[in-house]
C-alpha cells in the first residue's frame, strides 16, 4: 500500500494562498528550494487539483528555457516533467508533461491508487487534499511554514467531521526562519 503525503508551503496563520490566490508571501532560500526538488525525485506519483496543476504547468515545463534560470531551477524543471502526475478536474480536458487526467470521483481514485504497489504519493491543491483529508486517506502532513501572516485566503486544513491524531516525526529549520514539520497520521 502506498503512503499519501500532503506537503505545502503555508503562512504561519495556516494559509497556502493569500486572498486572491496570492503566493508572493513565501520566503524561499536555495536550501529550501533544493529540499522541494529532492521531494520531487522521491515522489512516485503526484496528485494535483486543477488550480495547483494550472499554476505548476504554466511555469515548470519551460522554466529551464527562461533566461537566468539557476542550476537548481534547471534541475527542478527536469525532475518535475519526469515525475508521473495525476490531475483531478472536471473542467479541463487535457493534460501533458507525464500526467493523466481523472474526471471521476477523486476519493475513489485516490483510494484505488493507495492500494497499488509503489512509492510515496504526494497530494497538492486545497480542494483535492481536503477531500482526501476528510476521507482519512492522508498518511503524512508536511507543513512548510513561512514567517508571515496573510490574514485569510486558502487554508491548509479543511473542516473535518472527526479528529485526526498525529505524531511529530521531524522538525527542520531553513534560512529565513522557515520551519518544516512532518507529522504522521496515527491510526
Question: Could you explain the architecture of this structure?
Answer:
Residues 4-180 form the Bacterial bifunctional deaminase-reductase C-terminal domain. InterPro entries: DHFR-like_dom_sf, RibDG_C, Riboflavin_Biosynth_HTPR. With 187 residues, the chain is an alpha/beta fold. 27% of the residues lie in helices and 29% in strands. The chain is globular. A hairpin with a 3-residue loop joins strand 9 and strand 10. An eight-stranded mixed sheet has the order 5-4-3-6-1-7-10-9, with helices on both faces. The model has no long low-confidence stretch (mean pLDDT 91). It has helices at residues 30-41, 50-57, 71-82, 106-115, 126-134, and strands at residues 4-11, 15-17, 45-49, 85-88, 99-102, 121-124, 140-146, 154-155, 166-174, 178-185. The protein contains five helices and ten strands; from the N terminus they run ββαβααββαβαββββ.
